């Protein structure tokens, strides 16, 4: 039997190194399935990773949220562990609140929750409740960002102070305050560093690419793909026949002109 502490550490490490790659999420889900006898402990690792920190690991929270969809999908199949699915269903509100903290990752949460609903993991009432909370978070975030932009656009009248003795010398030159004297932002919205933003952009691009691939993918052989094209293809109308006849007539005229040119 594997050491429980080692299993927790290994699983926590897998969670912290998740990326936009589906292979990483599937690998982590299989590891959890392999150690299903420690399901409560491993599920608690997921919650701990989501609830620690604030915005410093926002990208990792998004990756864990996407992982949960793979996690649920794997354990709903034959040979899976239904306990994991039940834990996700039980703690989904807690998970959403941790991932969409301060209004961040709202789109990520909305997409994953929608996917879990389509798989039957979440009920419609739960999804509606989550959507209401997400809209509230979006409104609060928009208000905070609006207040921040307004605060940055207005210059502080106390931004500059006159040096000692400037009044007696008739000098109107002001000296800026030091950085330590600047007040902190009133809304508390912290800035993400450039590296984290670039990483998030790359991961979102990778996920969108995989999403398009899944839309284009057709299961089965060529005959099934042909049947799908036949069913989805629209019937030709009278206008299409008229256009085709006109194009055919133009091609014949061009051929006749080309032959006449060669003959001369």
UniProtKB/TrEMBL annotation:
Record-annotated CID domain positions: 3-138
One example of a Gene Ontology biological process annotation: positive regulation of DNA-templated transcription, elongation
Region of interest (Disordered), residue spans: 159-212
Family matches, as Pfam families: CTK3, CTK3_C
Gene3D superfamilies listed in its UniProt record: 1.25.40.90
Residue ranges, compositional bias (Basic and acidic residues): 191-212
InterPro entries referenced in this protein's UniProt entry, alphabetically: CID_dom, Ctk3, Ctk3_C, Ctk3_N, ENTH_VHS
CC per GO annotation: CTDK-1 complex
The protein's name: CID domain-containing protein
Source taxonomy: Eukaryota, Fungi, Dikarya, Ascomycota, Pezizomycotina
């Amino acid at each position: 039997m594997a050491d429980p502490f080692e299993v927790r550490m290994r699983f926590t490490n897998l969670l912290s190194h998740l990326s936009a790659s589906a292979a990483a999420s599937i690998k982590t889900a299989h590891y959890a399935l392999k150690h299903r006898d420690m399901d409560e402990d491993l599920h608690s690792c997921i919650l701990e990773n989501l609830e620690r920190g604030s915005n410093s690991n926002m990208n990792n929270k998004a990756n864990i949220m996407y992982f949960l969809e793979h996690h649920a999908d794997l354990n709903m199949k034959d040979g899976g562990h239904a306990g994991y699915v039940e834990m996700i269903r039980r703690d989904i509100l807690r998970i959403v609140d941790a991932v969409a903290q301060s209004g961040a990752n709202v789109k990520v949460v909305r997409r994953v929750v929608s996917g879990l609903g389509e798989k039957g993991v979440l009920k419609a009432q739960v999804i509606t409740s989550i959507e209401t909370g997400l809209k509230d978070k979006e409104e609060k975030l928009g208000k905070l960002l609006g207040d921040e932009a307004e605060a940055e656009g207005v210059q502080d009248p106390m931004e500059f102070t006159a040096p000692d003795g400037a009044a007696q010398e008739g000098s109107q030159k002001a000296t800026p305050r030091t950085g330590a004297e600047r007040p902190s932002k009133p809304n508390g919205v912290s800035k993400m560093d450039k590296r984290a933003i670039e990483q998030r952009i790359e991961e979102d691009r990778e996920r969108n690419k995989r999403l398009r691939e899944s839309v284009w993918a057709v299961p089965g052989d060529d005959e099934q793909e042909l049947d799908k094209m036949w069913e989805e293809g629209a019937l030709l109308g009278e206008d299409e026949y008229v256009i085709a006849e006109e194009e055919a007539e133009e091609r014949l005229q061009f051929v006749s002109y080309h032959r006449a040119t060669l003959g001369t």
